[in-house]
Amino acid sequence: MDYGRELLRRQLTELSRNPPEGVSVGLGDDENIFHWEIMLVGPPDTLYEGRFTFPRAP
């Protein structure tokens, strides 16, 4: 396994165990460490309160 894949795997594990408040992280494809799915929940007292955001990047 190359360094990049191992680094992403460790980061995903850490984020899954200790996610920041309002953040959910997982793999979009269990076979592809480069395809993450992220959900952000808007914090209270902001314009984004109660909104769910699914960031997209190429």
From TrEMBL:
Residues 3-58 form the UBC core domain. It comes from the Eukaryota. InterPro entries: UBC (IPR000608), UBQ-conjugating_enzyme/RWD (IPR016135). Pfam families: UQ_con. This is UBC core domain-containing protein. It comes from Saprolegnia parasitica (strain CBS 223.65).
